[in-house]
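Quick board copy: two proteins, each given as sequence then tokens.
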Amino acid sequence: MAWKLVFGAQAGADYKNTKLLFVWSRNPAYSDLHCSDKYFDEIEKGMKMIVVDPRITPMTQRAELHLRLKPGTDGALALGIANVIISENLYDKEFVEKYGYGFEEFKEYVKEYTPEKTERITGVKKEDMIKAARLYAATKPAAMLTSASPVVHHVNGIQNYRAVMCLVALTGNYDIIGGNRVLPSSYLHVSSFAESNEEQYRGEKFDKEPGIGQEEFPVWFELVKEEAQAMRLPDYILKKKPYEIKALVGVGMNHRMWPDTNYILEALNGIEFFVSIDLFMTEACKHADIVLPACSSLERTEIKVFSDNYICSPEVAIEPLGESKNDIIILTELAKKLGIDDEMLNMTYDEYMDYMIEPTGVTLEELRENKNNPIMARNIGTYKEKKYETEGFNTPSGKVEFVSNILAKYSKTHGYDSLPKYKSFQDIYPEYENNEYPMIMNTGSRRPQFMHSRTYRMDWIKNLEEAAFVDISLRDAERYGIKQGDKVVISTLKGSIEAVANVTIVSQEGVLSMYHGNPDADVNILMDKDFLDPISGYPGFKCFPCKISKK
């Protein structure tokens, strides 16, 4: 959403051709392990790296600069960097003047974020922030490596990330080799020039009623289109307003991924009819009326499109066990039983797959004949730099929007700021300005052995950690009389849980960090269901107030 609000399209970091990689709160060594060595290889070849992250990670340890900010202050840090780049005339004047919209207003706003003010808000030393700004602006090309959740899982997440994206605009590193490139998306969102029909398959409208959360989060529905805002699903079930949800089909549904886990569980238990499609008898499945077993990847054929434009359809390793079926077959058969008049939903599995890869010039029959060997797509595009020179930007102004026209449209009805203004969670939700809860909880930072709540079901993985740990800094542990291994109680306005203290330098002073999804100590129950970003509807998982005490 942030990329679209600023540029109209998302752009990925071209780390193989960049001279400087600006990593903004991403830790591929834990979250994207098969890619992490690639970044380190580029460092060995001379690439410089700046990392923004509240925690110490394998990425921060290899960085030229580690900007260790307080959780949730990303927007302030980005605005402070913008202040330096603009005030020192380091920005790409040609790009900004020709393609920027609202730059003068943005320029005036960032004057507030002096190095001194930025340091007070973020905790990042002003000298380090200034050095990072100069290095990023002076190095060409430079790429910004962003992430799917660490920044947007704040109640000011969209605005914080907009401020970060504006740095890409200020330096002119958009849609260039070695910068942030705009690449086509193929099947299952893989960036590849072997294009698919996935986008054509996706719907854009909800027929009879507005989508779940549409009135509250209109920008989500403008930019995401085919998805409802699921954070509001339990409200619709339990409150029956603005309309009632009577039946639900969950595909791989995990109730522990919601804030206030008990609330969504109450909704699942209260709905008239709940069907769960999954590979395992998960906790959510135990609350369903019917469980439909899905095949694992070993039991089903599928199409894989790779970033190097190869396509493959791996053979089935074993026949489906029990009554399990391919997810796609489950959904298309359900559509037929419901009598849904939709050409694509009425396709057979083979017809569906052929339709998806039709633009590549390769057929499903060819892939099967070739068995497990991939085939190069016949119709392959090539990357062209600066497509905006002829196509413009897919924004209301047709330019890079430092001031968003989409957000401005809802300024009166929803209070959205058209500028990427920084706000703390207390600014947005004043009721959380409570001295009784002086600590910040940061949840969701990856650990290599866990994948949300899934691997907690496997004893040999779960037992790699002897207890439900909460990371606490050395200074905070000393302040509260807590030692390694002590049992502690973590409390919020919503409730409390018990955990075991892990005293570590990884966590900042004033910040607790705990992994989510553990049924023995589910940190998500401590969050209020309404602690959401007013623009995206995403929960503030990464920054909510709490307190800790020794049990």
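And the next:
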Amino acid sequence: MNILFFIIALIEGYSVMAFELISARILAPTFGSTLHVWGTVIGVTLLCLSIGYYIGGYITNSKPGENQLYIILIASGLLIGFLTLISQPFLLSFKNTGTPLSLVLISLALFSLPNILLGMIPTILINHVGKISHETGGSAGKIYSISTVGGILSCFANGFFIIPHFGLIKPAIFTGLLLGIIPFILLLKQKKPVAMIFLFHLVFISYANKKIQERSGFKLMYKSEGLLGQILVVDFPGYRQQGIMGSDRVLLVNRMGQTWVHKENMNSRWTYGNYIVSLSSVLPPDSKVLLLGLGGGTVAKLLKEQNHFQVDAVELDSRIIQISSTYFNRSEDIQTVVDDARHYIRTCKKKYDLILFDIFKGETPPSHVLTAECFQETQRLLNDGGMVLINFNGFITEKAEGLSFRSLLTTFQSSGFHVKIVPTFEESRQRNTLLIGTNYPYDKNKIKIPLETFYPRINFSSMFFPVEDIDLKDAVLLTDDNPLLEVLNIPAAQQWREDYTKNFTIPFRKKGIPLF
């Protein structure tokens, strides 16, 4: 009997970690993968497990039978499997409540009961094993040790294989099945009705979680879950000039746009790429470019075709590199490297004329890359007369939303660059802002491809935003010891996510594209 209880402890440890990873990925399409989200998931998990430990200890004082343990296992398994069914409409009903308190409350509503039940299991197991071995202390050590081993196995299995290959629904159902299968068999032998409830419920969950039929020109081309986020490629109808209907393709990471193109020619629907072409045209043809962050590869394509530059692209997520080639016609002449941007900067032996930071994971800028130390390291890779460009969100002077940009500006200036600011022509909430850094004053008279080439009806006489008009008193210097950019960017990120939820996530779900 000890062996059976130790197997259950292993399964419990596996399930706790699997459920924690699944919980974070369930929140990601609606709330992102920010520190707030991961902190909330970890905090709620630990809180509820501690409650479960306490309740489990209280139950052991009433001398529970083994059937009570089996029922708890089945109940926790059913709840985990059922969660993927109820969480999609539940999360979308709270789509615009991104404050930390609301995130905690939503997480408690979704994840507390399964975690409490999982927390009850080890203490009940310790009681049963202790009765058999007459060594309560030794039993506790063995149970928690085996449970921890299960958690370690789950972390690697789910993080690197199961969730990336099977998404969220199948791993959740599998975890529920794993928790309930042994109790189901044992209770079935005793002809307990709860065993059949588990079987019928499992069949219902599997059927109810089937994908909604895609319709009306919306087609899911690619979908993948992973520790680096959910990735979708979706084709959908898009308006052209004079109201003509065409087809668009979008690349989304955690439901935030990374690339959006006209499907017929793969030209970007966003304007900032053309701004980069124009601003970097002060450099000669055949200039060497380091692009940090590939996305669908539209910026790399523009720099190669319009400026005739040589482009090396660094991308952290290998899935993105494959997607850019398969779904966005990335040229094979664009050299790609799978690496962290900061690590590449530190280890690269090459020199470049243009270094472009275009790095977001969903709506989140990587704090460890956009620091004073990283910009100083970047100087080492820059040829004389070269330039650095940073793509960021469009908020500049807004008190809360613009604080992250002002801090980035302060940090960039502190690294010794001559800095220019160029926001794209849209409103703050829809635009991008480009930071230009050079070792010599930037000479706009050397621009060979003017913006009027792309937008002849727009007057660009004042394309540069006056740096001296920006109040930097509240700005924070971003360093390796003070990497606060992700936290400072939360108000701006929330604005972006609200827009994407309204314009993409909800319409996509109505047309058959599941949340996860």
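Board note added afterward: The domain at 2-208 is CATH 1.20.1250 (Growth Hormone; Chain: A;).
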